[in-house]
Structures are given as structure tokens and as C-alpha cells.
Amino acid sequence: MPKLLECALNLSEGRRESVISTIVEVAQGVRVLDVSSDADHNRTVLTFVGSPAAVAEAAFRITAQATELIDMKQHHGAHPRMGAVDVIPFVPLDEATMEEAIAVARQVGQRLGEELGIPVYLYEEAATQPARRNLADVRQGEYEGLARKLADPAWKPDFGPPRPHPTAGATAVGARVFLVAYNVNLGTSDMDVARTVARALRARTGGLRHVKALAVKLAERQQVQVSMNVVDPFQTPLYRVLEMVKMEAARYGAPVVGSEIVGLVPLAVLLETTRYYLQLEGFRADQVLETRLWSGEQ
Amino acid sequence: MPKLLECALNLSEGRRESVISTIVEVAQGVRVLDVSSDADHNRTVLTFVGSPAAVAEAAFRITAQATELIDMKQHHGAHPRMGAVDVIPFVPLDEATMEEAIAVARQVGQRLGEELGIPVYLYEEAATQPARRNLADVRQGEYEGLARKLADPAWKPDFGPPRPHPTAGATAVGARVFLVAYNVNLGTSDMDVARTVARALRARTGGLRHVKALAVKLAERQQVQVSMNVVDPFQTPLYRVLEMVKMEAARYGAPVVGSEIVGLVPLAVLLETTRYYLQLEGFRADQVLETRLWSGEQ
């Protein structure tokens, strides 16, 4: 398979459709997989895929366009943000490596700083300091607190000037693995059970290394849900997550009644689950018929 | 996804490499997935994929070429056979339907009969009579018995003359679903257990509708294997096969210690297994990232 990067660029505009479509049109040479706007958040997630060079160029052009059409001084929304293009994460797919995603993050960050005058923080795998790995820490203070943050020597940006861009604020550019949103429904209406199981699964409270979890009430179904982000589904596979939910919920007599994958999931993540349950020996991804049909190989 | 057919054409030549490669070269406009030759069987399976029209044209041209390079009067091998191109099965993939595979089988059969003078039997889903569905029945008597078989009014060919082609014999052309070769290893060296479990699984002896099964000794591992062909893995999914092997073997205290998928498996077959074990609600194939990357859609 070819080297591909995914980019799930977060725009601080979720209401003005003409602005959003004008910005999306700039994404040339890549495949746009999804455009999801939220009016309450006043935010759009634009997901596209392509070669590292094409994804880097598209991310740069989108940011240049957004800088002209979005004025952060006018922006209000429920979601934390600090820039017109708020976050640009690059995700390695197929044979692309994390090193390549990091290289693209740095290259795009540098261009944003030098050519557009936008201060840039590198985050997650692309971070230059441990304190900048976590996006929530980087964005702390939001757009309104940017001038002070950028002036702090500890928060000198990785690229660009140490002051906010007049309209575009600042941008976080990073690299991370593909995350999977995975929810498990329990056959009880008792939220205490969901909270206890979520706590048992969550990395922060002693659970699985790459799981973020919270309890959700499914009022219509009279069920509760353990709603999770598996932030590295290659290291913490879905079967392990499900079986641990089953194990913890069984303690309270609550059965697993269903689960759901929200959005996209890489084939490799599903194959690992299949290998576990079927106890498969030596099963390779290229045994999946479709990988032969769609690959570039002859 | 586009409409695609797979063709796993069986050639009666597994020894002379130059003959095989000359024949394979004729396959233009399709993607050749695999060429597997067996010298003992003196036979080659040539697997290719493409649009219905491209696969039909390639199958015709390969047969025309094989008719010139293979002389069935000189052919000997361990595998039953009746023609230079012995079997041409068409398998619907993606959005192609069985009806389209059957239509291609009939069209290719007709051209083989009219343009090349080869007697053709339609088999499996393309069969015109129930007695011709099973390939083993169609091929009964092999090349050496062809002249007599074709002269029998009950075995008048579907296309072509009622006498063998001088060099190419006769060809079976059919349509069938994708089959999966699936083996389950048991933690015992007792062949009686494997035979009993194989009998319990096999459709012919009361097992699962689309399973063919036999017992195999894995001498080096001191294990036994239930070796299966799941001839319609869409109707009889792999999880049902595995769980039934577990259930039957447990009766004799033998655990399942592993399984293997031999060769290719369609993504849809794996997804059904994932849906079962993860108890997934409403999971669609287009949630697999790669289906978006490789599909023609934007």
C-alpha cells in the first residue's frame, strides 16, 4: 500500500456555510473523507487523506484561506479554541510511519509561522517539550489568553512570532495515531454501574493504557453506556476493551448488551479482534481479498 | 464499490513453465491475483479479477491460447480433469450479483462452443439442470470418457458440439460464491476426535449447511485438524463454524488451540465475525477506513 497521511483539521467556523465551503474547496490533491460542522461549537472538522506532500500542501492552503475568512476576535462557541485553524493533527495510515507524520507536522508548522505569521505549537507525538504533548494544556487560556501565553518564555511558540496573529490567533500542529470511538452498552439503567466500569477502564484511574472513558445514560433504551476513546487501538485492541468491560460489569450482574464503533476504524484494528476471537494463527492483512483489489500491486 | 468478478480458471498444465506464462500473458485488462501451479496435479489455478466484460474477455482469450498449446491426449496428472481449460468459475465480488456472474458464465460458455468448438457444461449456480450443478458429477469419466459422455443425450453439452475438441477436450463453466478454506486445530493427537468433529460439522452428515469437512493429522505438532471449506461463508459465517467446533470437541475434552484461514477471505466475512464477537450494533463496511481510501467515491 502507498504512504498516506490523514489530517483531521479543526476550523473555528461551524455556522457560515459559504465560508466553510470556500475553505474546503482549497483542499486540492487530497481525498476529502468528511466535513462535520457543529453550530453550537461553531467548529468544523475537515478530514482528508493523501500523500504526505499533498496533505501538507492542503493543510497549508486551507490555513491561508481560513486566515482571510475567519476573524478570531469575532468568534464565539462552546468548544475550547485558540485559532482560526485551531488544530492540525496528522495521522499515519497504511505504510506511512509516525516519523513521517511528525516530519509533516513540523514542516507545515514552520510554513504557518514563516509564511503566514501564525504562532504554532507542536503537540502530541510532534511536541518538542513534554509539557506541550497534551492538546488541552497547549490550548489552556484559549484565544483570549493567547497574548499573555505567547509572551511567557515557557510558552514561546515552536514556529512564528511570540504574539497572536491578528485574525487567526495560534495553531496547534501535531501527529498522533488513529483513535477509535468505541461504546459499550450495559443491560442496566443504573448509572453507578456505568460510572464504576468507566473508572475501571480509564487509563487515568488505573485501567487500560490507551482508554479514555465516561458513563452515559441511554434514557430511551433504559440502558447505560461506557463511552470510550481508544486513543491507540493498535496497542490497546478492542477485544481487550470489550472483555474488560464484560468482566467489570459482571461484578454488578450487568451484561453487555451491545457495542458500537462510532465513525471510522482502520482495518488492522478489526483484524486484531478477529485474530483474537477466532484464535487465528499467522493471518496477514493481505489475505483480505479487498486489500489485493485496491492496492497498487499487480 | 465497482462491479467486479473474480475468475479462478483451472488449466491442465502445471509443469511446462513457458506454456503457463505464455497463456497467463493473454490475460489483459484484468488484475492477476495469483498463479499457482502443481506439478503432481499437472494443473495451474490462475486467479484474476476485473469488470464482468474484462473477465469474460480474458477467460475467452486464455482458453483460445490454451487450446493451441495444450493437447489433452498427452496430459497426465493426479487431479481429475476433462479439458485443457478444465474449469472456469466466475465469482461475484463487491456489488456484482450472482445473476451477473451467471450471465458471464453463459456468455463465455457460448463463445467457447461457437467460436472455439469446445463442448461446454454449465455448472453450480449457472447449471441448466440439477444433475449438472456438482462439478464432480460433470467431470465424472474425465477426458478419457468424454466421447461417450458427450454422445449420451442426458449429457448433451450446454454449448458446442456433442464431441470432444481434438486437443482441448471439454470445459466446465460456472458461477459460485467466494469460498473460504478454514482449518481448526484441536489440542489432542486423537484422530478419532477430529473425525467425529468433522462429521458433526459437515453438511452432508447433518452439520452446517455450507461446510465441507475432513480430519487431518498434524504429526509434527501432535495435534489434529478439522480442515474445512466453507462454500458459502456469507450464509454460514466463520464464527458459527468455530463455535460449533469448540462445542463438539469439548465433549471429548479437546480444546481449540488455533485456527487458520488459507488464502483469501472477503472483508464482509471478517466483518460478520467481528460484529458477532464485539456484539456490534449497526456497523457498516464503509466504516472501515480502507474502504473509503480505495473506493472510487469522493
Structural features, described:
Two copies of one chain form a homodimer. With 298 residues, chain A is α+β, with helices and mostly antiparallel strands. The first copy, chain A, is built from nine helices and ten strands. Chain A has helices at 17-24, 52-69, 98-116, 135-139, 146-151, 191-201, 238-250, 267-278, 289-294, and strands at 3-11, 31-38, 43-50, 85-94, 120-124, 171-175, 180-186, 211-218, 223-230, 256-262. In chain A, the strands form two sheets. A six-stranded mixed beta sheet of chain A has the order 2-3-1-4-6-5. In chain A, strands 8-9-7-10 form a four-stranded antiparallel beta sheet, with helices on one face. In chain A, a hairpin with a 4-residue loop joins strand 8 (211-218) and strand 9 (223-230). In chain A, helix 1 packs antiparallel against helix 2. The longest helix of chain A has 19 residues, at 98-116. The radius of gyration of chain A is 21 Å and the shape is globular. The termini of chain A are close together. The mean pLDDT of chain A is 94. The interface between A and B is large, with 44 and 44 residues.
